[in-house]
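pls read this stuff:
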Amino acid sequence: MKKLLLLMGILFSMTVSAQRVAKVGTVELGLPYAEALQAIKAEFGEPVSVTENQEVVFGKKNFCGFNYDEVKFRFKNGRFNEARFFMKVGSKGAAQKRMEDIARELGKTEGLSRDIEDNNTWFYKGGVSPVGVSHLFTIYTYPKQGTYGTELRYGPVRFPEN
């Protein structure tokens, strides 16, 4: 009986500490920079720029059936940990409608919940982070320079340092 309990405890701890696989499109979060950059280029083509701090930037791209004006892939400690998809929309109402459309589409394959900010603005969060128990992505609207936009953000995921 003691051996069985010990074995169950070991299996449980291994399950809890294991990282889940999470992807942005076909690109796995947590990949080392060079490997992730190759996978990003394979899916999205050549970036507009790659900055010194390893931020990979694209112009107009289609992702999950939606056209985004700008896409950024970010890295921390040499690992792919965040992707941001920006869409300029115009009015607050149009941005909220686009957010709803994106949420409906991603909700077909990922768990999704709606939450509300302190200023009574709602947003969506969904999926499961590859580490911990938090969500994988967030969909929200934002005001910027007199117009509104909608953003789909994966991460940032805080991977343990090696």
Summary: Residues 3-17 have pLDDT under 50 and may be disordered.
